[in-house]
Amino acid sequence: MEDVWVYILSASSFLILLFLFKLQRSSKRNLPPAPPSLPIIGHLLLVKEPVQRTLQSLSDRYGPVFSLSFGSRPVVIVSSPSAAEECFTKNDVVLANRPCMLAGEIMLYSNTTISTAPYGPHWRNLRRLTTLEILAPHCLASSLTVRQEEVRLLVRSLYEVASSARDSGCARVEMRSRLQEMSFSIIMRMISGKRYFGAAADAGDAKVARQFREVINEIFELSGTDPGDFLPVLRKVVDLKGRERRMVDVAKRSDVILQGMIDELRSRRKRSDGDRKVESKMMIDYMLSEGYSDDIIKGHILTILCAGTDTSAVTIEWTMSLLLNHPNIMQKAQAELDDIVGRDCLVDEADIHKLPYLQNIINEALRLFPPAPLLVPHESAKDCMIGGFDVPRGTMILVNAWAIQRDPKVWDDPTSFKPERYEGLKEDHAYRLLPFGMGRRSCPGVGLANRVVGLTLAALIQCFEWERVSEEPVDLSEGTGMTMPKREPLEAMCKARECMIANVCARL
Ligand code: HEM
């Protein structure tokens, strides 16, 4: 009995000493300001959807660098260009880690993927493979036909729907699912060399593609903020809302599909010739020939699909919505296309860099509606300073790109859609406009995204007249989700332009 008391007393003394030590350390530190918080859960109840808006109003009160506690996890939120610049220049290496999340642990191969792996040799290796091979300009050049074909198929399907509309040649079309399917097909073909949707796909492949899309949607849904990530003690007691069980189930289903893709390609390689050189630079093919393990390849496919599909589709959907609300800007973009590309042929990827007004439109859409409004969370590997405040090791860093890009101190008339604001500007917009992030963990898919988004928008604007489905402006409210989708999927009235029918639309 005496032993028990000795044990209890020494454990309590230890805890009290630890508490005092922590208190003394934190009182010496100049931590970023924070709102009052509750014990154990910290500020979790304060963080309401849409998170970027909540964090913006908190930064109005607590400043451009402030801190929160998500349960036991310290978080620092950065909402000014100068603080973001500090993060991605002098602190770039220290902040190149990612916080370890349950979703990545269970669904993304124990956080071994390029987007979730901690900063270190394994991440560097995957990053080099991605930027110097898979998404490098020479590889993007070899997959040019994939993108042009998929955009042509999108235009053709819209033309068919519009031209079969009685009398008017004008049809009401739902854009989100079309854009998601196109974007998914482009990336799947670049990964595996195979078309999973449409006439060229067999029924089995189409089924796999549909299952895969479902799995990806579930991964997105389950990757949002999970209380279990911030209250690990609670997680051990209850599986909050059965999330962990669902994650395990989704991980199993996605693994079966991904393994099937790898096995199919492996046997295709064997059948054709064991020793042949990799003639097609498809991603799986390339990774197999470089000797990567199946788990690393599966994680990479999943990451590229998750990171690359919805981001591009959502950007096109937001841009089209903005253009429908600003028909004069749509007309100006059409005039630029007529002038540079003409009306006798469909716009080509090589034309995109000759269309500065279109590029300004895309920049402006990404400024107002960045698909990753808080970028992707970073984590400090060591103590560091941001904006004159101490940021301890192990702090999660959220850069509120959405708030920076709408800050009236940074942009004139920040909530208006004005592509002209970039005209004649010599300065670059780094740290004011950062939809792809900055520094070593910034988006490696920016080149592909610019090509897909630019080419698709150019083709849609060149070939069709677009109108809203009613007098009302298109609703621009944000929904919830990882890639900040529009709350309502975009619907629009679509009609082939007379001048484009004979030479382009009817020949696709
Ligand atoms: C409009 C389209 C896109 C936007 C706005 C976007 C934005 C971003 C952002 C903000 C990050 C995080 C940066 C940070 O942590 O600071 C990121 C990371 C990433 N993106 Fe993109 N992205 C887009 C398209 C793509 C595409 C097409 C791909 C690939 C096919 C891709 C692959 C990735 C990967 C692999 C990462 C993780 C990088 C790492 O952790 O090292 N993204 N993206």
From TrEMBL:
Binding positions (heme): 443
Compartments reported by the entry: Membrane
Primary localization: membrane
An MF annotation (GO) of this entry: heme binding
Lipid bilayer topology: Single-pass membrane protein
CDD domains xrefs: CYP81 (cd20653)
Short name of one Pfam family: p450
Domain of life: Eukaryota
Protein's name according to its UniProt entry: Cytochrome P450
Similarity annotation: Belongs to the cytochrome P450 family.
Transmembrane segments: 6-23
Organism: Corymbia citriodora subsp. variegata
Cofactor needs: heme
Keywords carried by this UniProt record: Heme, Iron, Membrane, Metal-binding, Monooxygenase, Oxidoreductase, Transmembrane, Transmembrane helix
PANTHER family cross-referenced by the UniProt entry: CYTOCHROME P450 82C3-RELATED, CYTOCHROME P450, FAMILY 81, SUBFAMILY D, POLYPEPTIDE 5
Keyword Phosphoprotein: no
Assigned GO CC terms: membrane
Coiled-coil regions listed in the entry: none
